[in-house]
Amino acid sequence: MGKALIIGAGGVAGVVVHKCCQNSEVFTEICIASRTKSKCDALKKQVEEKGTKTKVTTAQVDADSVPQLVELINKEKPDIVINVALPYQDLTIMDACLETKTDYVDTANYEHPDTAKFEYKYQWAYREKFEKAGITALLGSGFDPGVTGVFCAYAQKHYFDEINYIDILDCNGGDHGYPFATNFNPEINIREVSAKGSYIEDGKWVETEPMEIKREYDFEQVGKKDMYLLHHEELESLALNIKGIKRIRFFMTFGQSYLTHLKCLENVGMTSIKPIMYEGREIVPLQFLKAVLPDPASLGPRTVGKTNIGCICIGKKDGKEVHYKVYNCCDHQECYKEVGSQAISYTTGVPAMIGAMMVMTGKWKKPGVYNIEEFDPDPFMDALNKWGLPWHETFDPELVD
Ligand code: NDP
Question: How far apart (Å, rounded) are the C-alpha atoms in residues 147 and 347?
Fold first, then answer.
């Protein structure tokens, strides 16, 4: 059918590459391009050794440079660009897609390297330009954001007249055996969890101190875990796109050891994003910390246990109150056996491939810039079952107070 240009060659990109290569009918060709070409070549070797009909090429690119991206896109002529580099590169890649009239998919919203705050306004500002160019940008096609938005759209379409309360619960019951490591890019992960928490109530953001709100929840297939309220990017778009929202919150589980290490690193200044001078050279403490922490892509072989990520929706149908939960459980070791990575990269990479497939096959092709819940959720929900992230639903879930 077509060709995808995959930008980035980290943990998530590895899964996207494997999944596109399993889905050769849609992805007849892929080009993997990243800052470090040797990582792209290593991924190409892995999938070719496993056997695939997809033709795989690689390239070097600095995705902070629009001219380099435009040159690469013009040379490779992909139908779609799958951005699985870092959130810092979202706008340059969108600019290059505009210039070359190429569709765009990402998994995380734009964040400026100097400000640990993510919001959609920078990418939503491209709506008119994408519409005029006749190309589609699908924002946030990972798991959260991503599948969580599709879950909410599915609930809205099939079971509710209005959804008043949404709680998104992200549980990682996996254990990698290290005292401290992050499951995806450490810099992005630590920026996210050390920021203030927030949720939306009655149309307004309510801010909390980091990790101020804690609950315990008994997760299907995982068991009881402590979870903490975090700010998360899909809250912003879901509050606008789902009818009847009164409150929407996001919780993520953390073990005590992770939190103790994080607090200590914060207390000594290692999580700061303000540059400091070190031996005559400017360094950013958090970037230095990233360099000494385990590479998330290396956690695959040692991580055991499961993730459970899903949405609890409370609302009304035909005047009656409905409680609904939809979730996916994913086993770290099963993912490792299939694509050589742990479940966090897997649960992000599979939806990135599916999102690209939705646009490429025309099911979600619509000029403009869209969040994932703005499209028909049904073909995406079917694809989740087919491509490795089967979901479950219940109308009697445990609720969060
Ligand atoms: P990694 O750090 O493992 O990989 C990032 C990749 O991007 C690396 O290969 C890196 O290159 C490359 N890269 C960074 N800067 C540039 C640049 N300027 N030009 C070209 N390539 C560049 O991150 P992950 O794979 O863990 O995460 C990828 C994305 O997925 C992130 O945006 C993250 O926020 C998002 N994510 C989304 C989730 C969701 O559920 N929605 C969950 C988890 C992650 P190099 O190898 O040279 O460093």
Answer: 9
